[in-house]
Amino acid sequence: MSSKKSTAGSANIAQNRQATHEYFIEERFEAGLVLEGWEVKSLRAGKAQLKESYVVLRNGEAWLFGAHFSPLPSASTHVQPDPTRTRKLLLHAEELSRLIGQVERKGYTLVPLSLYWKQGRAKLEVGLARGKQQHDKRATEKARDWQREKQRVMRRG
């Protein structure tokens, strides 16, 4: 008798929708996060935002900057929550060395894409990205509009 909980809809905590507009995502990585207790509680409540966040590689480690985890009013009284503190990302050593090489030599950027639950643990999807120029953004938008219009025509059909 197994009691599996269906978390299909609630597995996703936050997404960085602007990232796919601003960057070409070449590769995706899954990273764990080093969190404090109040941060886990606020993530369970869905109080996270990745909009202006970014990933930096320092001293052979990956760090998440600018992510905003809103503290709950019921957070502990003896802990001073800092909503935008720098959080360490947990990646395998091979992944880290590969990312360091890509970012330093080839000019890629690391962008947080989404924050989600996996087997009870918070995970961050990090994208190895190249920046889009203005004409690339316009071309992407034009292609998206064309696909939408094509679907409308096919439905009326």
Rg computed from alpha carbons, rounded to a whole number of angstroms: 19 Å
Instruction: Please state the structural category.
Output: alpha+beta
Largest sheet: 7 strands, antiparallel
The overall pLDDT average reads 82
Poorly predicted tracts of residues: 1-9
Helix content: 25-40%
Q: Tell me how many strands there are.
A: 9
Q: Can you characterise this structure?
A:
With 157 residues, this protein is an alpha+beta fold. It has helices spanning 17-22, 37-44, 93-106, 134-156, and strands at 12-15, 23-33, 48-49, 54-58, 61-65, 68-69, 87-90, 109-118, 121-131. The strands form 2 sheets. Strands 1-8-9-2-7-5-4 form a 7-stranded antiparallel beta sheet. The chain has a two-stranded antiparallel sheet with strand order 3-6. Strand 8 (109-118) and strand 9 (121-131) form a beta hairpin. The radius of gyration is 19 Å and the shape is globular.
